[in-house]
Model the fold of this input.
Amino acid sequence: MRTGVKVAAAVLGILLVVCLLSAIGFFLSGTGQKVLGLTQKVSQFVGTAREFEALEKAHPFTPPPDGSLAEERLLAYLEVSEAVGPEARRYADWIRSHQEAGTKEGEGLGVAVEAMDLIKALLGRFLEELRAHGMCLKEFRYVQRVAEESLRELGEGPATALNRDLLAALEEASRLPGLREGERSALQKKVQEFRDRMGLSGEPLSPNAALAARYRDRIRAAELPPEARALLLGAADGGRSPAPVIHLD
Done:
């Protein structure tokens, strides 16, 4: 199933729950105007699902066969994540607060309306940034996965961010085509000595890991809260992201 279709299915699943809550709220509390307002919000989400589908058609993406990651697309991913960050954290904080406190009797419809407003703001900003960077959801998900895998390749251990940056620079320098063989061998020896001092494995960094090393702190800072990630990418990662649950009874 295509990513856009998965996104549409996930959003429509949310809509079914919200519609059910709307009906319950109408018959139990008599707040017809609130239900009408919520119904109007629901109709906007149908359009949002179509916009994700249109974005995938406008900016189709096929993962590179070699699994490589271009620096310019990593930067585009980071800029999208950083711009979406405030809305994502606002949504995540709201989810956590309502999961912890629960919902009092008679507040279910109001909570649903509030949630819809936050979701609309988050999805809207996400779409806006994806469009601005010529990126579809499938590419965003790919870059995110490769960046995360590259960070895992870097590992933890005693290496500081500065030392990792230096190592990445040395790795790149050792692959320069203009080096004499003796110079290359000497530089590769220095690289291995540097890696040993940092407690890293003897294998050289992959190009993706070398790239991630240069943006390590920024990649970590741009990580989306799990609640927002589940909303934005849950359909794309096959449901691996935990979906937030709020009890409205």
Remarks:
- The chain is about 75% helix and 0% strand.
- The chain has two domains: 3-148, 150-213.
- The first helix runs from residue 3 to 29.
